[in-house]
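Supplementary Note 3. Input sequence used for the single-chain structure prediction.
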Amino acid sequence: MAEGQNQNRGVAQNTVRTEAVMKVYARTDGDVRALDGVSVQVAPGETVAITGPSGSGKSTLLSLIAGLDRPTSGELVVLGQRLGDLNEDGLADLRRRHMGFVFQNYHLIPTLTVWENVMLPLVPQQGNSLGLKSRALHCIERVGLQKRIRHLPGELSGGEQQRVGLARALVTDPTLILADEPTGNLDAESAGVILDLLFGLARDGGRTVLLTTHDRAVAGRCGREIRMRDGRVETGRQEP
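The predicted structure, written as discrete structure tokens, is reproduced below.
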């Protein structure tokens, strides 16, 4: 059985639901329809890969689910919240409290240590207390970097930097993890380590994982695949 299925954190029936979502970018040489009526559902505890060629709309869909952009039309419901009902502060609060993000290019601040990078999501809202520091240390330990907490990103390998990114994504104890090509810059061995950690930590916490990938091996480790082409959902697959 694929990883990350059948866990439930008691959230709404679907962690993510999109209905007929359209995203059109206006350009002088003609509008670009990045998403064309996309309707998907992701249940609590699922691990779902969004796949497709470049320009198929997968990163756009992930961005809309994160509330980082607004659809041209259609509805998005994430963690029981209709995103269209939330202002920018509300969207930011939803992200801070309930979502974790893992990026292809790590997005670590180069002048901050491993410890400080992992602490970043906690500081704006909750401060810098001993309890929060302990939480960050726990996440760093879980990804195996406790001996590197004082190192800067430039002193780490790509795989280690992505482990820092994973610890940072988990430090707020999110319900939903969104990962954009999380293994895209890693060799096969490092990618395997990251996926083991990502799916293991998600399974332990009953978290939902939604990731984009070009890699068939990565998609194969997810419980389900949403395949996109030209802004539309092409096919779906469910592992036995």
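Residues 67 and 91 are 6 Å apart (CA to CA). The chain has one domain: 42-59+87-238.
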